Q: What sequence folds into this?
């Protein structure tokens, strides 16, 4: 009898484990498949692929620098806008607001994450871009001479992309930061208040205690911004440029995939696009790993159950 | 000004900033919803659900093919993702703490972070290139791959919520682990798992990027899995990029349908999760 029980359990374990193995295999296959298909350009161009700026599929010239520039620039800009707002929201919900409106506020911010990217894109094209264009044309001439405001006032461009990305990233960062804050032991705040701290000073103590987790929350938002495709493609202008100008149309890695992949007839062009996908995959992988590591180390030091859920919420 | 007043003022300013942040996030939400609803309602009618797209210049028409396409893609994707997701979730919960469970969890979280456009590139390589044909099947695989980690992690989380006493009760009666899971633990969490699936559906129903070069698009009505198929999201994308006002109206109508689907699914899932959590925490 004990014999059959253990063997039955073993079968169950192996059977369910096989399905789990599929999940592991998919991740492995993604890495393998992307590498395999980008070999032609990796061999042909090597690192020059990432150093040169000319992207001309017809002439067989593939320089991906403008795309990686656009992806990093737009994501960093978006984060610069979104991170303070997301942290403000997290603090407001976790520390300041009355318990009664806590849940509705959480729901509303999560709604921001639920709206499909394509809907943000549509809204961006017809509402945000005209607004940004109006802002650009009304900007005084003196300011327009600065390099970051140079370029035609078309509305589509880096600024629109960064704004729409910021809107989309806020809910991810704020929900993780909120859970991280909740895991800070109350003794931290009570200690600060006991020493006569103001609200700001007490919250600052909590934020300092939670700093690794907060950094993780911001990194998580960064990972989301890097891979965001549709909304950015629709408003960034899709013009490969390496420029600091906020008004200039630019291009991102995800956007060039969305625009050119289905029409890439030439094998070298396809390989170049897959290599862009491979690098995008690698960068987001590293950023997400780092983010999870930070949140996890915070969870371990706080040993709060809340952060464990935060990591899961971030994963979901 | 005394030091104390300055500190108090700084503190109030900070509280003000936090409240302002909430408003700053809610303004775009309200704006997006306002435009989608107001523009969408003006454009939506029965034809939108029952008619095929009209050629350029002819007003009217609808997105019947795209709606059916989205349903087929989401349905097939679930068919693929539910077994893999649920069972690997069971493994992670039952053998939590083992190295393999952590590895699966790690893989699921990694997969979740992969940009959806990269999933599209991957599926193009395994399901389009070998057959030299864009197809509904490829689109469904792409969506399925995106659903797996969401379902797996929700299932795991919910199984862990089941009180240990229930599990122990089954084991004490002489049940094997498999039996305890399938007759006691799983039925107790079934509503939760369905919630997870609904949540995953809400996520992928609005996905465009992974379909662009897997399912592609189709101007005609198609239910064949080997042919390109139209979807609401790709259709909205194409219409939004077009220069025609009539198509823009259709795009808004499509966006309204998408947002309604996604919000209803999320709302349902959210309510069910709250109920489940409060049930188990008593």
A:
């Amino acid at each position: 009898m004990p014999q059959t029980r253990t063997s039955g359990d073993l079968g169950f374990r192996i059977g369910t484990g096989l399905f789990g193995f599929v999940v592991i295999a998919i991740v492995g296959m993604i890495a393998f498949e992307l590498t395999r298909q980008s070999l032609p350009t990796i061999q042909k161009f090597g690192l020059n692929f990432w150093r040169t700026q000319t992207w001309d599929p017809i002439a067989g010239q593939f320089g991906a620098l403008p795309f990686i520039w656009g992806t990093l620039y737009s994501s960093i800009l978006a984060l610069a806008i979104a991170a303070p707002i997301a942290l403000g929201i997290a603090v407001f919900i976790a520390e300041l607001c009355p318990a009664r409106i806590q849940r509705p506020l959480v729901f509303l911010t999560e709604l921001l994450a639920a709206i499909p990217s394509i809907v943000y894109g549509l809204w961006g094209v017809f509402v945000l871009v005209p607004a940004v264009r109006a802002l650009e044309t009304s900007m005084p001439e003196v300011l327009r001479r600065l390099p970051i405001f140079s370029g035609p006032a078309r509305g589509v461009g880096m600024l629109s992309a960064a704004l729409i990305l910021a809107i989309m990233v806020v809910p991810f960062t704020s929900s993780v930061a909120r859970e991280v804050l909740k895991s800070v032991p109350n003794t931290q705040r009570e200690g600060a208040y006991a020493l006569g701290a103001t609200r700001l000073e007490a919250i600052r103590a909590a934020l300092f205690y939670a700093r690794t987790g907060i950094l993780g929350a911001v990194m998580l938002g960064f990972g989301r911004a890097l891979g965001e495709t549709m909304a950015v493609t629709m408003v960034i202008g899709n013009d490969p440029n390496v420029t600091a100008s906020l008004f200039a149309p630019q291009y991102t890695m995800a956007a060039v995939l969305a625009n050119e992949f289905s029409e890439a007839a030439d094998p070298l062009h396809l390989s170049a696009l897959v290599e862009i996908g491979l690098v995008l995959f690698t960068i987001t992988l590293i950023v997400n790993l780092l983010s999870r590591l930070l949140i996890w180390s915070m969870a371990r030091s706080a040993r709060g159950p809340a952060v464990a859920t935060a990591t899961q919420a971030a994963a979901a | 000004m005394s030091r104390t007043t300055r500190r108090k003022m700084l503190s109030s300013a900070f509280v003000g900033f936090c409240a302002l942040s909430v408003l700053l996030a809610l303004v775009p939400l309200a704006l997006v919803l306002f435009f989608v609803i107001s523009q969408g309602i003006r454009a939506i009618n029965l034809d939108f659900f029952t008619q095929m797209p009209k050629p350029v210049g002819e007003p009217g028409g609808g997105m019947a093919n795209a709606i059916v396409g989205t349903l087929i893609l989401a349905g097939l994707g679930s068919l693929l993702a539910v077994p893999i997701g649920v069972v690997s979730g069971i493994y992670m919960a039952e053998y939590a703490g083992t190295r393999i469970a952590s590895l699966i969890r790690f893989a699921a979280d990694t997969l979740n972070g992969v940009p959806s456009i990269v999933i599209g590139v991957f599926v193009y390589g395994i399901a389009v290139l070998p057959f030299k044909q864009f197809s509904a099947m490829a689109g469904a695989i792409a969506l399925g791959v995106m659903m797996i980690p969401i379902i797996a992690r929700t299932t795991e989380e919910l199984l862990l919520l089941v009180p240990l006493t229930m599990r122990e009760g089954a084991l004490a009666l002489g049940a094997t682990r498999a039996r305890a899971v399938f007759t006691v633990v799983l039925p107790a969490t079934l509503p939760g798992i369905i919630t997870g699936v609904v949540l995953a559906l809400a996520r992928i129903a609005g996905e465009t990027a992974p379909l662009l070069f897997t399912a592609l698009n189709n101007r005609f009505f198609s239910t064949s899995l080997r042919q390109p198929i139209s979807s609401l999201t790709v259709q909205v994308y194409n219409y939004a990029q077009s220069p025609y006002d009539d198509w823009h109206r259709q795009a808004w109508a499509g966006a309204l349908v998408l947002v309604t689907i996604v919000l209803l699914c999320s709302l349902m899932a959210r309510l069910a999760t709250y109920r489940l959590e409060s049930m188990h925490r008593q």
